[in-house]
Structures
1.
Amino acid sequence: MSWLSRLVNVFRASHLDRDLDEEQRFHLDSRVEDLMRQGLTRAEADTEVARQFGNRLGLREQSRDIKLIPWLESLLQDARFGARRLRQSAAVSAAAVVSLSLAIGGCLAAFALLDALLLRPLPVREPESLVYFTHGSDRDFRFATVFSYPLFERLREVAPAKVDVFATSVQGPQEAVLPDAGGEEETVRAQYVSSNTFGILGVAPAIGRLFTSEDDQRPGDHPVAVLSHAFWKRRFAANPEILGQWIQLDQRPLQIIGVAGRGFTGTEPGVRTDFWVQGAISRRELLTDANNHWLRVWGRLGAGVTREEAEGILQPAVLDFLREENEGTRGKGRFGADPPAPPTLRAQAGAHGLSPLREALRRPLLILAAVVALVLVIACSNVANLLLARAATRERDLALRISIGAGRSRLVQQVLVESGLLAASACVLGLLFARAAAPAIVRMLAPADNSAYLDLRLDGRLVVFVAALGTLTTLLFGLAPAARVFSLAPNAVLAAGVSRQSSRLGLLRLLVAAQVTFSLMVLFVGGLLLVSFQRLMRLDLGFVKSGVALLTTRTSSQREAQSAPLAGQLVLDRIRQVPEVEAASASGWALFSGSVGGVWVQVPGGARVESSFLSVSPGFFATMRIRVLEGREFEPRDLEPDAPPVVVVNELFARRAFPGERALGKTVERDPAREEIVGVVDNAKDTDVRAATPFLYTPLRGVGTLQVRTKGDPLTLAPRLRSEVLRVHPSLRVTSVTRQSTLVDDTLLRERLLALLSGFFGILGLALAAVGLYGVLNYFVVRQTREIGIRIALGARGPAIVRCVLAHTALSIAAGVIAGLAGGLYLARFVAPLLFEVKPLGFWTLALPVAALLAAAALAALPPVRRAVRLDPVAALRHE
Amino acid sequence: MARYDALQGALPLLVLKILARRGPLHGYGITAQIEGLSQDVLRVMEGSLYPALHRMEEAGWIKARWASTEHKRRARVYEITATGRKQLEAEETRWHGVTGAVAHILKHA
């Protein structure tokens, strides 16, 4: 009680106090005026009035109690009454609360994700004046947002007062030795930033200092690092002693000089950063190579500078830079000889950071939010159904109360308090559900070894959202029953008994139609996404992904790497002798590992073909089960130092390079070598399951990643393989072991997530609609018991009774189906870009959800219909 | 204050009667009416009128609204409700009963 009264006082009492005070003051002033008119002085009048009036504060307290307590008591009374009524039908209430809390929890989780990824601005100074730059030469967001270090340096010098430019690197997991790790490497996420980054963003250190602009002036000079607050807490237990200690990254020692302020997690939502390093200390070739794009370039706009002005200021510098670069490397650059159209620099609003994850997930997340919102509406109409049907049993009770003078508003308050109780408990459960679900979803967003990181916090925004959602749901399902109270004509109800119900049935039918509509929409969209995902999973990859273990290896020194060609063969020979191993090979990197190589290949006297390339050892095609269409695959003799240079190409390459001719035996030119095609293989996909690219394979002289095809689960053999590798080659380290199938499946995480979640919510929505339909039919049969009994007594048989029961809802279901299909097709327009080889407007895509819905409806109708048919007419006629 | 105590039980009755007769009034107006009509014999301990008014308001006998006076000030104006009229009838009957009985005793004791 005390917390409740305090809560209520917060938003009611201050207003009340003001009113009470004003009323008193009016009285006092009027009295003073009267007394002064009678000839008293101002002072005399004041004293007299104060004496006459009594203890102002005390009186005000009295009034306040009079006004607050009855209201509170009535509220409490209603809450108790509501709780009792909810307990009376515990199963139904539990079902209502659970379905509501799943829907509310879904909404909350979706909101938390959307908030972290789309809505919340970066925790930096004046985020609205931040921009990031893209160049128009690439439509793929990941490539359009990266620049080379020399270009960044040029942009930084243009006009710092108008556009203060800084840069951050694209980051991925890296190996580093941390101060207390005793020399053991571990995977960290380091980000290179220009040293003016923290200053421009306005990030303050938690301890120590951050980079200053001087840190950048001499490349390679100041090897220092700044830890993120989260990493400092997680990895070093927030120990301040860490300052001044050393991290070993990329064979380079870095001194820790500070920890960034709490809350700043970097400029890329979706990615976690452990520590920051100045860009200028990275490897020299990264700093000078204009073809190596690895930096995201940002700007802080000066006062009054618009994004368009910033583009105008920087664009000439970009063009100048490219002209100079092309003059310097004419004909030599790998891609530079075919320069694409000159890039147009665009300044994009950077208040929310820059996030490829967000670009990839914006649409899926919005679709997901729409789906959970629909499920919430279904759940709400379900609960409204429940409350309405139950209100029917109370109608006489309510009518009686109204006729003896109970205020209707008081009864409405009671209905709303009951709804509020339901909504509040659903909100609490939903919050718990969301707290578990949201991080689980984040884990599903990205592969385990490169996990996405989102700052999902339970802050004020979420609390406000929950409160708004709770109020909204209460109104959604509480208003209909409450409206009934107002329209109740007590005399009619009391006189007519049970037979008066037509208007309620109308409302129930409307709710059934709404539920059918929304659940069909969710089901339809979920079905599209599921089918699309299925298609993607069943695509022919050109190789067999199951049963292959991938061992990524690394040699610890340069000298070892040079002796690797021989060692690679030895390691493979050794592995092939393990009994469970069917085949083994090596390649520069694994297919679908995310690494890609691109080359331009010149056909002598013919076309230039852009192709992917990969170095593979003999036995690669056999191990991966990529079919050799013509010629042969690599053999050990191709690795000998004086062997003629040979390549293997895929069918797509052969078709592009030699249209209408046989590719086998032809030569291709790859600066500077001429190589002979000794084999043509099937199109194995890499990076994207949807489409293959032209591919050029070269013989691998080294180790790289090992593919091992085994009988049974490849990972059970991993420890054995690891030790075999070490035995042959002690300095070769196996850095990670995974399945080839995992790598492939990880490229479809987004599709899988969307399919799983929308499938789940589709089934939930269907179940809710079925429960709602059951409730309505059941209610109908109960209310019509007498009528049905009379019909049976008069000779009506089964089919007629079934028709009588279903006639009322069949129309609403039909209307719901039509509206649902229309709504689903409308939604499908937003889903379409995510679909693979699935057309929304197909027979099966439309028929299947409808069939599922009708089946669920039939299932839901079965128990009430059975009850109606088996009714004992004699008992029914006695029914009241 | 004897005068105040004498009024204790009768205050709601007086307020209801005044509101029924004179129409909507603010608190100060009610005070002035009570004083004027009783030739200053009955004087309310002025502040205590308000808790009484609020209690009657919560009971539904009177209702209040904010109105602006001729001097452009906001004043809370009270008005009797249908329930209040019924209540007034009952209280008046009771009052006449009690005062009649007391008068009878005073005369005949």
2.
Amino acid sequence: VSATAWLTQFLEVLAALALAPLFLGWVNACRAWLQNRRAPSLLLPYRGIRKLFHKDAVIAANASPLFRMAPYVVFGAMVAAAAVIPSMETGLPFRSAADAIALVGLLAIARVFMSLAAMDIGTAFGTLGARREMMVGFLAEPALLMIIFVASLISATTALPLISERLAVQAPALYPSLAFTAVAFTMVLLAENARIPVDNPATHLELTMIHEAMLLEYSARHLALMEWAAALKLFNYACIGFALFVPWGASLGEAGVLALAISIPALAAKLAIAGVWLALLETVSAKLRVFRAPEFLATAFMFAVLGLLVHLLLGA
Amino acid sequence: MLAPLPERAVSYAPLVLFAVIAGVIAVTFMVVRFVYRRPVRRAPPWDCGFARLDPRMQDTAEGFGQPIRHIFVSFFEMERQLPSPLDAAPRYRVVVGDRFWKALYAPLAALVQRAANSVAWLQQGRISVYLTYSFITLVVLLAVML
């Protein structure tokens, strides 16, 4: 592994940190346009995070050290996940540190800490949010793993950068199994990132909250880290999706500076399209009741299993 | 490993991963601590406008597991007594049983028990009987070998 590879790795993590709030802002702006509203500035998430960092923190009197530690752990897990996901370059030095299954585990660490912190204060809302988050989590995880299994069966590896590389260099053919898993992945992405059919990121109605209910007790820099981590999670999921289903454009295995230079606009274009697509999906669908969410995620799991069956039976 | 793949295709370095996470946490903590050094104030937790929160209102493990029971309702055997709003002394009681235990494992266990019981008559508890067993075994083995 060369020095340039390490530099690329570092740049990629920095890009994820810098672009994640912008991506969130873009999705929000597209949503606003689709709903005939005037869009907020694309930079609004940055301003929100900056504002929160400059405030005095208020935490509950009975908060334990876990509560203050959790934002750092959640943020750290998300950044580590961003280091493993090949958003621009597949020859990452960390690619052998964690394969796609470990990546799912990384996302689970963040979820567990977030839920623990939400239950730490002991108010009803935090626990309600934690309970619902775990419900969505344990239903979404099998679907996500099944999606990864399909992609890893096609490419004979579980390392995400290698999956991406092998799918990108294969003759451009239409894989029906990948088409099924792409649908499943989109559903998992919406559920895991507290987007509309399962949760509403803009909700102020307390009884329907999942993600926001867990963050109610956080303020200032802790909240800033949590929000940044949430933006990173959305960005990470989008990049997992690109790596699995549209791997073209990313620089393949230390291909040099030129390939890397091409990969940046490619990533930007993919993010822009993904943002429009997400906003469209969220605009045309209504929020489900909490106990309809299992059906939604069961459908995602079923699509992923269908993808697996199509691959195993038809080899396609 | 979990993945349906040969071992060598699966790559995972837990120590490196742990180091990366720990490193990121440390760097984030340092940056936040030194750049945004603001005081932390303690305040009572938000009470949703209900001023008399007490530990009895906390959610329980029962509540935390409720979605699983709700989603997989057909797998559980549940007996529930819910209080009505008019009860002077409200009482909540729930007994959760495992349907699989009754339908699958308990009959299996009973079957094994019955089989064991029926084999038990071999154990007569008399040394002469056991010596006979050994003798018969020896004869059979010799007959097979020769």
